[in-house]
Input
Amino acid sequence: MSDVEKGGTSTPIVLISPAMTAVFGYLPKPAFGGPGARTLMREWARMVLTGRPPYAVGRPITTPALVISLGNDTLSPVAAVDDLAHRLFSSISVTRWHCTSDQAPPGSTNDHIGWVRTPATVVDRIVTWWHDTPRS
Output
């Protein structure tokens, strides 16, 4: 299922990205993600529209993975993040964490891009997961 089918809000830029990258050779500002590399933006747009990654996935990835979604992220809805994780990873290899809005530091946000202004909550969770997760 694609991001569009899961209620994502990125549909207009997904439809415009391929044309803009063809004209400019990259995705210019002020477009979402701009400036963005042509191939990256085209692969992203294709994945959002089709729900399929831009590379072959022969079998589920078994390497441990921390899959994070953010409470105010309208560009990567929880259902889309869950679906991507399900498509790519073996369920036993995934640690799933949804960072809710109340976990964001006071006065900050946990949307698709804004969380990086006050990243401590997300970074602390990643570091804890990294140290606590066994690897082969």
In short: The longest strand covers residues 65-70.
